[in-house]
Specification:
The chain has about 450 residues and is α/β, with parallel strands linked by helices. It has 14 helices and 20 strands. The structure holds pyridoxal-5'-phosphate. Its EC number is 4.1.1.20.
C-alpha cells in the first residue's frame, strides 16, 4: 500500500513536468466541439524548443544553425511557426520541397538530403534555388553534377558520411554497411574520401562540408565523440592532399532525445559531452558553421492526443481499457513500443464515475491495459512509468503526451479510420484549427470509391 502511494506521488511529480497547455475544463470543451480523437498543439512550446537548442550550443566557437527535420511533422502551421524563428529546414523528398515551396520559404534556409538522389530530383531541387545539398553516394554526386550543369547553379555540396560508430538509440542510423551515407574509406568510389576528392576535381561543384546523422532518441552521447574523432582523422588526411581544402559547414544530424518513459538529458547536457571536440575541430581546421538537425526534440513536446475510453473489461485481476484511438494514429507505439506518458482525466459530464468511485485502486501499472480500437494484436499502448491511469473508466479521456513527432505524419487509414482534427493554441492564446479531420466520405473517395 505504502509503495503504491509513493508510486502515485512520484507519478504526479513527474507528470507535472509535462507540457500541459490546456486545463481539464478546456480540454472537455474542445472535445465537446471537435470530438475525439483530437490532437492539440502548443505553438509556444515550438519556439521554446528552438531557443533551448540554440542555448545548448552557445559555447561553440563558431556560428550555429538549427535545422528542423520536417519529416517529424510537416503540418504547414507548424512550419510557419518555425519560419518565424528563422531556422533552416532539413528536407528529404520532393514532397517536402512542395510544402516548403507552398510556404514560400527561402531556399537559402534549406538543406536537402536525399536517399534516392535521382537526376530529376536534383534538377527540381536546384531549380527552386536550393544550393546546400547533402550527397550520400557517388552516383548521387554524378547526378547532382549533371543537374547543376543543366540548371546552371553551383551547389554547395556536403558529404554524408557514415561514421560506423556504435549508437545507443531508439533508432540507429550509423552502423556497418548501413543504408545512409558512405563510409569514410570503405568503397572504391562510395567513400567520403573519394567523393570529396571528386568534388574538388569538378568545377560544377563546390565543397561545403560534412554531414552525419547517428540516430533518433539517442541517450548516450559518446557516439558523437567517436564520430567527431573519425571525422578529424579524415579532415587531416584531406588537408594534406587537397591544398585549398576547407570545412565550411559541419552538420551533426539529429538525435536530441525527448522525455517519454524516462527522464533524458537536456540538450545542454547532451552537447556538453562533445562540445570540446567540436571546438578542437575549429582550432585545428578553422572556423565553420555547425548545423544541428532536429525533428523529434523540436516538436514532440508541443502536442497532446486526446482520446476517449469507450469500453472496459475486467477479468483475472486485469482491466482492459478500450480507447477510440489506435496505433493508426500513433504508429510508434506499435513500431517502437514507444511509451508515451498518458494521463486519464475525468470529464465534466461523465456520470459514470458514480459507478466507479474507487474502482481502480486494485490495479497497478502492470494489470491495467490501454488498448486501441483496431482489430489487431499490436494495437495495445505501452504505458510509461509516468502514466497515471487511476481514472481509467468509461467516458473519461486519455491524454497521450509528447506526441508531436513522428505521429501525425504516420496517420493512416487502416481499418477505414479517418484522420482527426488538429488544433493549435497560438502564442496569443487563440485556438486555431490547423488540420481538418477527414470523414468516411473523404476516405471512400480517396480510395477510388467514385471510380465506376
Ligand atoms: C538525416 C536526418 N537528420 C535528422 C533527423 C531527425 O532526427 P531526430 O528526429 O531524432 O532529431 C533524421 C531522422 O530520421 C534524419 O534522417
Amino acid at each position: 500500500m505504502v509503495e503504491n502511494a509513493l508510486q502515485i506521488i512520484q507519478n504526479k511529480v513527474t507528470l507535472s513536468k509535462i507540457n500541459r497547455f490546456f486545463t481539464d475544463e478546456e480540454i472537455s470543451q474542445l472535445v465537446e466541439k471537435y470530438g475525439t480523437p483530437l490532437y492539440l498543439v502548443d505553438e509556444e512550446a515550438l519556439h521554446d524548443k528552438v531557443l533551448e537548442l540554440n542555448r545548448a550550443y552557445e559555447k561553440f566557437h563558431g556560428h550555429v544553425k538549427i535545422a528542423y527535420s520536417i519529416k517529424a511533422n510537416f503540418n504547414p502551421s507548424i512550419l510557419r511557426t518555425f519560419v518565424k524563428d528563422n531556422i533552416t529546414f532539413d528536407l528529404t523528398s520532393l514532397g517536402e520541397l512542395f510544402f516548403i515551396r507552398e510556404l514560400n520559404i527561402n531556399p537559402e534556409n534549406i538543406v536537402y538530403t536525399s536517399v534516392t538522389e535521382e537526376l530529376d530530383e536534383y534538377k527540381q531541387v536546384l531549380s527552386y534555388g536550393v544550393t546546400r545539398i547533402v550527397v550520400s553516394s557517388y552516383f548521387g554526386l554524378v547526378n547532382l553534377a549533371q543537374a547543376a550543369n543543366v540548371v546552371g547553379i553551383i551547389p554547395k555540396v556536403m558529404v554524408r558520411m557514415n561514421p560506423e560508430v556504435g549508437v545507443k538509440a531508439e533508432v540507429r542510423a550509423s552502423y556497418k554497411n548501413g543504408k545512409f551515407g558512405v563510409p569514410l574509406n570503405g568503397g572504391k568510389v562510395d567513400s567520403a574520401y573519394f567523393i570529396v576528392k571528386s568534388i574538388f576535381n569538378n568545377p560544377l561543384l563546390e565543397f561545403e562540408g560534412f554531414h552525419f546523422h547517428l540516430g533518433s532518441q539517442i541517450t548516450d552521447f559518446v557516439c558523437y565523440v567517436n564520430a567527431l574523432d573519425r571525422l578529424n582523422s579524415l579532415l587531416n588526411k584531406l588537408k594534406k592532399e587537397i591544398p585549398n581544402f576547407s570545412l565550411k559547414t559541419l552538420d551533426i544530424g539529429g538525435g536530441t532525445p525527448v522525455f517519454y518513459n524516462e527522464p533524458v538529458p537536456t540538450p545542454s547536457e547532451m552537447s556538453s559531452v562533445y562540445i570540446e571536440k567540436l571546438n578542437n575541430l575549429v582550432s585545428s581546421h578553422g572556423k565553420f558553421t555547425l548545423m544541428i538537425e532536429s525533428g523529434r526534440y523540436l516538436v514532440a513536446e508541443s502536442s497532446i492526443m486526446v482520446s476517449k475510453i469507450v469500453n472496459t473489461k475486467e477479468y483475472n485481476d486485469h482491466k482492459i481499457v478500450i480507447l477510440d484511438t489506435g496505433y493508426h494514429l500513433l504508429l510508434d507505439a506499435a513500431l517502437l513500443k514507444q511509451e508515451y506518458p498518458q494521463e486519464v482525466i475525468s470529464t465534466k459530464n461523465n456520470n459514470n464515475h458514480l459507478y466507479f468511485s474507487d474502482s481502480n485502486k486494485q490495479y497497478t501499472g502492470k494489470n491495467i491495459h490501454l488498448v486501441g480500437r483496431l482489430c489487431d494484436t499490436l494495437d495495445v499502448f505501452p504505458t510509461s512509468k509516468l502514466s497515471d491511469l487511476s481514472y481509467a473508466n468509461i467516458g473519461n479521456y486519455v491524454l497521450f503526451y509528447n506526441v508531436g513527432a513522428y505521429s501525425l505524419v504516420f496517420n493512416m487509414p487502416f481499418h477505414c479510420q479517418t484522420k482527426p482534427p488538429v488544433l493549435m493554441k497560438t502564442c496569443e492564446g487563440d485556438i486555431k484549427l490547423i488540420r481538418k479531420g477527414t470523414s468516411y466520405k473523404d476516405l471512400y473517395e480517396e480510395e477510388g470509391g467514385l471510380i465506376s
